[in-house]
Every structure is written in C-alpha cells, then in structure tokens.
Model the fold of this input.
Amino acid sequence: MIPASFEYAVARDVADAIQLLGSSGGEGKVLAGGQSLIPLMKFRLAQPGLLVDINRVKGLSDIRENGELRIGALVREADLDMNAIVRERYPILVDTTRVIADPLVRNMATIGGNLAHADPANDHPATMLALRASVVARGPKGERVIPIDEFFVDTFTTVLAPDEILTEIRIPKRPAGGGGAYLKLERKVGDFAIAGVAAMVVMDEKGRIATASIGVTNAGPTAIRARKAEDILRGQSPDDKTIAAAAAAAAGESKPWSDLRGPAEYKLDVIRVLTQRAIRKAVARATGGK
Ligand SMILES: Cc1cc2nc3c(=O)[nH]c(=O)nc-3n(C[C@H](O)[C@H](O)[C@H](O)COP(=O)(O)OP(=O)(O)OC[C@H]3O[C@@H](n4cnc5c(N)ncnc54)[C@H](O)[C@@H]3O)c2cc1C
Done:
C-alpha cells in the first residue's frame, strides 16, 4: 500500500518540532519510530499533511534515575530492555518491553510513541498506570506534567494538543518493599495482547500489601486502572483468597470487546487469571524473589 502524499521535515530540536507542528494548521504528526504511524499511513487510515521527524532531536533518548526514573520519549524498546538501571530496579518495564512485537520492531519503536499512539492494545499504557507515571509534554505555551491517569482520553486519543510533543516519562523511584510485574497473553509471539495485566505492590514490614496499583491492557477503549482490585488488596495479606477476590474485581472492571482475539467472556477470564499471576509475581519481587 502507498500512503497519500505528505510533506516531511526533520526537526533540529524540540522547539523546532513544536514550531513545525504549529505551522501545519493541525495537519502535522510527529514521526518517532514509525512502527504504528507508517502502517496507518500505508492503509490511508492516517493522512497527515506533514511528518515532523524527531529522530535527530538530542536529549530525548536518556534514561536517568535521580529522585525518580526519567525515560526520554525517544528511548527505543531495545534500549529500555538493555538499560542497567531498568534491568536491576524496574523488572516490570523489562517484562513489558520484551513482549512488544519482535526485535526488528523493538529496535525502532519508542516508549513515547507507544504511549502517544494510545492504542488500548499497546503494552506500556497499563504498565505506566500501574507505575503511577507522569508524562511531560512541551508545546508553544511551555511544559506541563500530566499524570498518566489523565493522559488517555479514548482509543488513539490523548490529551496532547496537535502542537505538543511528549518529551519524557517520569516514574516514581521504586520504594523499599516495592515490586511489579507485567504479564500478557498473546496468540503467538510478537502479536498484540489478547489481554495484559500490570501489577505493582508495596509491602509493609508485616508482610501486608500497603499499596497496590493495577493496569489492564485491552480492557476497553483505553488501558484501564482496576481501582476496585487495588482497594481489595490494600492493607491485606497476599493470600489466595484476597488475590482471587482482587482478580475477580479486575475482570469486573474490564470491558473488552469480542474480536479475532476471542470473545469478551474469554478475555474477562484471561484478565482474571493474569491478574492473579501478576499480583503473585509482584509480591514475590517485592519480597526479594524474581
Ligand atoms: C508488527 C508490529 C507488532 C506490534 N506489536 C506490538 C505489541 O505487541 N505491543 C505494543 O505495545 N506495541 C506493538 N506495536 C506497536 C509499536 O510498539 C509502536 O512502535 C508504538 O505503538 C509506536 O511507537 P513509535 O515510536 O513507532 O511511534 P510512531 O509510529 O512514530 O508514532 C505513533 C503515534 O504517536 C505519535 N508520537 C510518537 N512520538 C511522539 C512524541 N514524542 N510526542 C507526540 N506524539 C508522538 C505519532 O505522531 C503517531 O501518532 C507493534 C508494531 C508492529 C509494526
């Protein structure tokens, strides 16, 4: 398939990218890894008048931990996977990036693009909900920090304005007693999720769950937070009964649709089972296990 014709501009820096987007009269689109946008353009489901290529913009590809974990929007999935801080301290991110597509896609795809694309089947949104992340956006009026709960509006829609660029993802530093995991069921390796569940817990000194946060992939028009499940876990021991109740609640809060990946009833049960497993894995990691 051949895309409709479009203009193409390489941004020198973030300010240049914002200016280019602003000059396009709402017709411009940021080009990052191109792994979602280019296929959409080839099918003519997206027909931007201008592509603003941010791949040569410096300062958007760093991963730093300084009070919080800061991940530049242009960090590629492959680099996220290879990063020493991420590997040692944020295994939930390694879980997530490794189940995205295949190595070829992961060499190009960016974490910022994965979030900005706002596909409910993408894997990072649920993980970012569980991690209580924020995203940083820059536009003509300056910079704003957006809590992840407020970022996703609808399928393929975020609160980003057409002339705003997502520059960074900020994740609270992993607390003592904290652990997380992301689990996904896919039809075959490299496929989008039938469903996926991200769980983060912080354990107290008595072995109870002090706080929990749970994000679900493919559970509605956007990734969702399973707040009832979080409430059930808070203050409780991670025993089978509590985890089963939380998992049932997470399924109850999800609204997947029937499609070629299975009927909704099946997906609800997948979410229930994955939630149990993700909570158990998060608790194991929080208490020193793998
Ligand atoms: C074969 C295949 C399988 C895949 N499987 C999975 C999977 O299993 N799980 C999964 O999560 N994803 C999957 N993907 C999607 C992949 O992870 C995409 O790369 C990702 O969704 C978008 O990242 P990108 O950097 O390629 O963004 P692009 O395709 O360049 O852009 C995507 C959208 O985000 C916008 N955008 C990008 N960066 C920014 C920014 N910094 N600021 C503002 N807007 C921005 C663009 O304008 C565009 O609208 C798959 C892709 C392919 C091709």
Summary: The first helix runs from residue 14 to 22. The two ends are 45 Å apart (CA to CA). The CA atoms of residues 145 and 198 lie 23 Å apart.
